[in-house]
Design brief:
The chain has about 170 residues and is mainly alpha-helical. The protein folds into 2 domains: about 1-90, Rna Polymerase Sigma Factor, Chain: A (Orthogonal Bundle), CATH 1.10.1740.10; about 90-170, Arc Repressor Mutant, subunit A (Orthogonal Bundle). It contains 9 helices and no strands. Helix 2 packs antiparallel against helix 3 (about 40-55) and helix 8 (about 135-140) packs across helix 9 (about 145-170). The chain is globular and about 50 Å long.
Length: about 170
């Protein structure tokens, strides 16, 4: 059965269809959780919580073809809430991570993304990590496509500025 048809049934309250939807997108949701939370235990816990939240609210989805984006958004919001609560990265943990990592490029990119606002982080994640189309993001956010593009441009400029400053500091 086509994904949109399954989503329609799930939105109407079909529990089997809801389980199918979660099965279809479990890998995407897990990768999203792991990207934010950085460990398997927390990512699995996030999966459980997001499944519960999605089950409670699936009836609110207005456009079945965007159910995947809707689920990813719930996951990102949950993960960001968890990170705020735990203040997961203390400065000593970052120093340890640098010490154990030969490739600091990945760390610098994570640091650059962390310097963005929550909204900018979500936009970058949706566009570049989940390959969500600008049109889908616009519909999900209920804003014009042009606004999505300008926010994306601003976020990318912030990333470039952060990384170029970082590069200048490393060479001093």
């Amino acid at each position: 059965m086509e994904e949109v048809e399954i989503a329609k049934k799930a939105i109407k309250g079909d529990e089997q269809a809801f389980l199918q939807v979660m099965q279809l997108y479990k890998d995407t949701l897990y990768r999203t959780a792991f990207a934010f939370l950085k460990n398997e235990h927390d990512a699995l816990e996030a999966m459980q919580e997001v499944t519960f939240r999605a089950y409670q609210k699936i009836h609110t989805v207005k456009e079945p073809r965007y159910v995947k984006t809707w689920l990813v958004r719930i996951m990102m919001n949950y993960c960001q809430d968890q990170l705020k609560k735990s203040k997961r990265y203390s400065s000593s943990e970052i120093v340890q991570e640098i010490g154990h990592s030969e490739d600091t490029t990945h760390l610098e990119i994570n640091e650059a993304i962390a310097s963005l606002t929550s909204g900018e982080q979500q936009l970058i994640f949706l566009k570049y990590f989940q390959n969500t189309k600008i049109k889908e993001i616009a519909e999900l956010e209920k804003i014009p496509e042009g606004t999505v593009k300008s926010r994306l441009h601003k976020a990318l400029k912030s990333l470039r500025d952060f990384l170029s400053e970082k590069g200048d500091a490393d060479h001093v």
